[in-house]
């Protein structure tokens, strides 16, 4: 974990420029493995009706006291607080994001990293927009599950989404997927962000196929349920502690 994308605060600066001045300049995503991509900043402010089906399913499945990890502009937290009337704690490492969350009316928005939060427990831990990304690398999954155990109430749940990137690789002659194991797990990627004249440091980001999540969950005494599959090799999963 500890994927610091806030030096400089690309997301925060972009969200503040949009929220306060209507500036819709896009965030550019750079990766050595793919062509540059963009994140439209208005999308970070979407309402429930604009969310994809996986996110709507997650919103509908939240209960109790909720921790929204990597809350961004707070769209999920705001819906859960205002429409579902749930108690929500929204956390992000971006100072700008937390400022925007507070301005939008989120009651409990904190600038803190997921791994640094302690002393509190939740009924629902929410990790969306490729929630496995913050893990960074496959060999950090055990640490990730230990943090979840510290944060969950006994009957709590984790709602997390990700994507299986194996579709990006060419099938072999037998119809299977060919992946070069020497280069590590295919979902371990590196990114940089840029916005205006600023660029972030390189950070690691993990896309995790469901079977790997299931195996890691079982190893760490969690149940893992496939809640919904999306149209683009993405999925929503629910993790619960095995009694």
TrEMBL record:
InterPro entries: Methyltransf_25, SAM-dependent_MTases_sf
Superkingdom of the source species: Bacteria
GO biological process, one term: methylation
Keywords noted in UniProt: Methyltransferase, Transferase
Pfam families noted in UniProt: Methyltransf_25
Coiled-coil regions, chain positions: none
Molecular functions per Gene Ontology: methyltransferase activity
Domain Methyltransferase: 66-156
Protein's UniProt name: SAM-dependent methyltransferase
Origin species: Salinimicrobium marinum
């Amino acid at each position: 974990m500890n994927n610091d994308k806030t030096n400089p605060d690309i997301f925060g600066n972009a969200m503040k420029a949009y929220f306060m001045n209507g500036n819709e300049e896009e965030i550019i995503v750079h990766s050595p493995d793919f062509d540059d991509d963009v994140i439209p900043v208005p999308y970070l402010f979407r309402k429930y009706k604009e969310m994809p089906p996986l996110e709507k399913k997650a919103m509908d499945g939240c209960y109790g006291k909720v921790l929204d990890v990597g809350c961004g502009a707070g769209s999920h937290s705001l819906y859960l607080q205002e429409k579902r009337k749930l108690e929500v704690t929204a956390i992000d490492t971006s100072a700008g994001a937390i400022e925007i969350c507070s301005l939008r009316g989120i009651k409990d928005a904190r600038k803190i990293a997921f791994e640094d939060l302690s002393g509190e427990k939740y009924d629902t831990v929410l990790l969306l927009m490729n929630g496995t990304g913050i893990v960074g690398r496959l060999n950090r999954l055990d640490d990730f599950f230990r943090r979840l155990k510290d944060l969950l109430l006994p009957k709590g749940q984790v709602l997390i989404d990700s994507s299986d990137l194996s579709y990006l690789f060419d099938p072999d002659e037998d119809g299977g997927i060919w992946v070069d194991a020497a280069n590590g797990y295919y979902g371990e990627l590196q990114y940089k962000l840029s916005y205006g004249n600023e660029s972030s440091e390189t950070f690691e980001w993990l896309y995790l196929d469901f079977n790997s999540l299931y195996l890691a969950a079982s190893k760490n005494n969690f149940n893992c349920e496939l809640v919904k599959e999306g149209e683009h090799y993405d999925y929503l999963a629910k993790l619960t502690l095995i009694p």
